[in-house]
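Page 42, continued from yesterday. The earlier attempt failed because a stray header line got pasted into the input along with the sequence. Redoing it now with the clean sequence only.
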Amino acid sequence: MNEILTNEEIDTLLQMFRTEGGAVEAEPQQRAPAPVQQAVADDRVVSPIDLLKPNRLGREQLRGVERYFESAAKLLSATISDKLRLDTRCDCVAVEQQRFGSWLDQLPGPVAIYVLQMPPFAQPVLFTASTSLLYGAVDRILGGSGKVTKVPKDFTAAEHTVAEALIAPCLDRIVESLADVVKLKWTTVNRFCNPSLAQILPSQDVVLSVYFQTAGEFLIGDLRMAIPFAAIEPLLERFSSDSGSTVKPGAMKATVASTVRNVPLDLAVELGGARIRLRQLLDLQAGDVIPLQVRLGQPAIVPVQGKPKFTAHIGRIGNRLGIQVADVMGG
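This time it went through. Structure tokens are written below.
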């Protein structure tokens, strides 16, 4: 931690995990509401800390993963627009690491859930689509307007079959966007609309949560994925290496040097400095002498772009004045 907690902050943190009687509270069965910030006596704000929040992916690794799924969102926009014959936009709005139990709790309902096998991933992957989006897509694919006023809680087998005309291409685009990192193949193992049937992993397992939001003229919904961290962990180095420059440190030194050699710089020589009053400055006439705060023979200062860089001796080069660099100034 970069900061040291005060006694008040430590007391506030400990109070989060104690009941009035001093016993440790049992873990709640349902997702707790968002924590409320608390103000302490000296007007500082104390925010509760989620000690169970997973932190398996580094910032660079997470950013590298985001780049791939942002590319997938662009492909999904074109695919959904083509399949539904409707101008639709899909954005990747969140890529984060979560406990699987928390991910399930955040699923909007009702929702269509697909259990997928995506070798070489060893664990199953969950893919969901909000039923409002999917049912409108089914109506659109069957020749309707896509405007639905009532969405069923569950899909029939026939409706699931029609819906796969949209789901399958979407999964193909996601797999395609990850092809540079891993060659994936997907198959549907199960499909249902009841989130209680989606407990394919222990609640405390960490998953990579990907959230796409889709919006068209009247179709609005979201697509989500939960990828087990254990499945994606061996590939993290590939994601992080592609998240920025892959050039090794120092490899561009020669290129940078050849580029900056032709950059013009302002160089001056300070023979010395003096401090005078304003009235003396206004009274100066041609021929007046201003004593400098340097001794005769003391090296002059050579600023580069206004910052002192060298010390030098004043001399002549033919009929012109010149300087001989005596030393490079530190800093």
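Notes: Confidence is low (pLDDT under 50) at residues 19-32.
Reminder to self: strip header lines before submitting.
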